[in-house]
Amino acid sequence: MKNITHSFLSLGSWPYAGNFGFNTDILATNPINLSVVLGVLIFFGKGVLSDLLDNRKQRILKTIRNSEELRERAIEQLEKARARLQKVEMEADRFRVNGYSEIEREKLNLINSISMTFEQLENYKNETIHFEEQRAINQVRQRVFQQALQGALGTLNSCLNNELHLRTISANIGMFGAMKEIK
Q1: Whole-angstrom Cα distance, residue 94 to residue 97?
Q2: Are 172 and 149 in contact (CB under 8 A)?
Q3: Which InterPro entries match (predicted)?
Q4: How far apart are CA 44 and CA 48, in angstroms?
Q5: By CB count within 10 A, which of 48, 86, 144, 160 is most buried?
Q6: What is the pLDDT of residue 10?
Q7: What's this model's pTM, rounded to 2 decimal places?
Q8: SS3 76
Q9: 2 — phi, psi (to 5°)?
């Protein structure tokens, strides 16, 4: 016990500092000063730091929520755009198929129309040729008949007398009447 008392008595024999001043011993003062400053900062700055961190956390969470909402809206818009694209592609295919069908139908109609027009022109050509042939044949017949008649009349006039001449004329007039009735 004597040792314990002695150690307390030795604490009482420390010299007093005398006045207040700066201790320039860095190794002895820095850890103490730093621990005091850190203790004060932790004690008083704990609320401020906590508020700053909470505010930062709230902003980050808000940004994440906004990003998620934007992402969901973008996904919805993408799905709508895909649906519209698919609808437009189907409509384009339908128009393409209908267009090709319409083109083929118009092509066949045009071919048929041209074919019918060609047949009509061919028929008109054949009718015109037949008509012109008949007209030419009739003209040739008339000329041959006129020449034959003139030759016969010339022969008859030189060979016949008036009475025979009148009978021949009457017979020819009768033949002309019969020919007119046949036509």
Answers
A1: 5
A2: yes
A3: ATP_synth_b/b'su_bac/chlpt
A4: 8
A5: 160
A6: 45
A7: 0.37
A8: helix
A9: -60, -35
Predicted local distance difference test score (pLDDT) of residue 56? 92
The 3-state DSSP class for residue 28 equals helix
Cα separation of 130 and 166, whole Å?
A: 40
List all residues 6 or more positions away from 163 whose beta carbon is below 8 Å from its beta carbon: none
State both tokens at 17: 């500092």
Nearest to 118 by CA among 126, 104, 133: 126
Q: What pLDDT score was predicted for residue 104?
A: 87
Q: What is the pLDDT of residue 23?
A: 63
Token readout for 85 is 């694209």
Helix (H) or strand (E) holding 92: helix 26-159
H/E stretch holding 40 reads helix 26-159
Q: Which residues contact 168 (CB under 8 A, 6 or more apart)?
A: 156, 160
103: amino acid identity, one letter: I
Residues with Cβ within 8 Å of residue 110, at least 6 apart in sequence: none
List the chain residues with pLDDT less than 50.
Answer: 1, 4-15
Amino acid at 120: Q
